[in-house]
Amino acid sequence: MDTEGWKLLLEQQNKHFMALLQAMKTPTTSNSVQLPVYDPDKQNANARAWISTSDICMGDQPLHDAALVIELSRALKGQASEWFSSVSFSGMTWNQFKDMFQARYDCPETSAAFLINVGNTKPKEGECLASFAASMLTSLLSRWKNLSPEQIAVATVLAQLSQFEPRVQRLAFTTEIEDRNRLQQELKALSFLKRRANPSEVSGVDAKRFKAPPTNITCFKCGRVGHKSVTCRYSSMRSTESSSKEVPAARSTNNITCFKCGGPGHFASRCLGVSSRSESSSAVSSDVRRVDVCQIDSPSGTLTHFE
Q: Would you state the pLDDT for residue 276?
């Protein structure tokens, strides 16, 4: 009887030691949740990224009521803290707060517009490329978390087409297109009223400003249909032909007087009197010849050397 009692006592003691060791190995869990700080007054404040991070912090047991109000009052700074004090109420849940917060600080943005804005971002001065890539990757994953592959593909196509057509860019910023059929319908509507001109007829001319010639206009100069009298080329051709056939009348030279020699019947450009006078003067001047030459002789002398 004594041996059995000691054995039971030792077994019970071993069980207590095993329970104590198991309790020491098990990590302690805290029920407190700490949300990241959000300040809309800062330049890099991102409301969508803050909501995504706060969802991860909430986990499977999100805060509610008084605990949620206390934690949000600590996390929100600046204008967000003033706004939250005016919209908080008793019994508030995390989902209700997210709806109000996104309506206040998260501007509704289409998937294509988000891609366009991401494509225009650049690393800051002194920012590491790894940090910039991590921030961009986090934004893309949080934005595309609830989108299907078809929605992502449509948004990518719209962002690429917006670089070539301004109307597609407006569509990308204003309309959320979710499938391929809707995208094809919108693109057909954009190109339905677009005028198409023959490149051989309007080479070098802007196709948007090209207009087909009217067919119900009659030219009052030549009587033909399809053009106005201002742009009539047939009347100009007729006037050219008629002017080439006309012979100009000979101008009388009786009343013409040369202003150089004073003689009648010729112009000053064809005056023979001036040329004859110039020739005679040159002949007279050719008899007299003058030669003006200046010459410097080398110095000459005698050098006498005495020893």
A: 54
